[in-house]
Amino acid sequence: MKSKTIIYLLVSALVFLLGLVLLVSFKEHVTMLSISTSIIAGGISSIAFGINRYLEEVDSKKSSDILGQSLEGLRGDLNHLDEALQGIRTLGALATNPNDRRILDRHPDDEFRKELGSIRRNKHIDVDVIGLSLKQFCVDFLDELVLRDQISVRLLVQHPFETTFALVCHQEAREERAMLEEVLVITEKILKLSATMIERDISGTQDIDHARKFEIKWFPLVPSITLTRLNQVMFVRARYLEEANHPPMFFETYYQEEGRCFDSYLVYFNNAWDDGVQPTLELCNKLRERIRQTDVVRQPESG
After folding, report:
1. Are residue 135 and residue 255 in the same domain, yes or no?
2. Do 126 and 253 have their domain in common?
3. How many domains does the chain have?
């Protein structure tokens, strides 16, 4: 019972008692007898109204509880419906011509954006991406992914201090210094973003059940594929020789329902992630110094 209703009932009872006191005290006085009976009647009416108000509050609370349970059930039904629709989309994709599942482009931007848009806001999102610098992916999607409440992102870029970095740049006809700068920018951005998330969790501004996690690692080995995963959908392609010169390339789309193909590439990424090195801001400073020294070496001698 709410405090206002309790106070109202107490006041009504006091009015009723006051009427009784006046009735007993002035029972021989006609005017006071009329006043006291009116007060008693008013007190009884107020008590009746208060009891009725209490019953309405009880019914209101029950109705609120029932409504809350119904909404929770509806939310669960919508989540199941979302999963069912995702399954239908997957089955439709699996039933199409194999060429329809191939993305004839350098990046699966449109396909990733479409899949991301089909996932409800209250659903958890897992994102795994491996590439040389992942600058384009971050430019296209990082701001949008940050807005999600439940998300885990793992970005795996090439280790800028390993000889494999220069090797990959060479075989893909990429300018090494430009790639080093991209790795530096993306790494610092993700490290600072991750630090912000941790500070927010510590301060209690984020519910642990709705945590957002953004991670980045440097991969020291030679990569054989480029991969982007969003929950149960994965886009994969081989790394191409002279890739920077835009040779014909395409991604294959794999779905978790397919089993072995999807699982094999997920194992690939997890193994690569385990082999990755966790960068720090100190390593970023060393990388910045390396890029600066590259500039010094390239300056022509005065003469």
Report:
1. yes
2. yes
3. 2
Alpha carbon 302 to its chain centroid, in Å, reads 55
pTM of the model: 0.66
Question: Is residue 72 over pLDDT 60?
Answer: yes
Task: Tell me if 245 is assigned to some domain.
Answer: yes
CA distance 165 to 287: 13
- In the prediction, which pLDDT does 107 show? 86
- CA 74 to CA 90: how far, in whole Å? 24
pLDDT digits 0-9 by tens, 233-252: 999 999 888 887 877 778 89
| Residue-number span of the structural domain to which 22 is assigned | 3-72
Same domain membership, residue 236 and residue 174: yes
Clarify whether residues 258 and 180 are in a common domain: yes
Question: Is 85's pLDDT higher than 60?
Answer: no
In 3D space, the residue among 270, 255, 302, 280 whose CA is nearest the CA of residue 94 turns out to be 255
What's the CA gap between 240 and 264, in Å, rounded? 20
Residues 292 and 191 in one domain: yes
Which residues lie closer than 8 Å to 214 by C-beta, 6 or more apart? 145, 146, 151, 153, 155, 190, 193, 194, 197
Question: One-letter amino acid identity for 164?
Answer: T
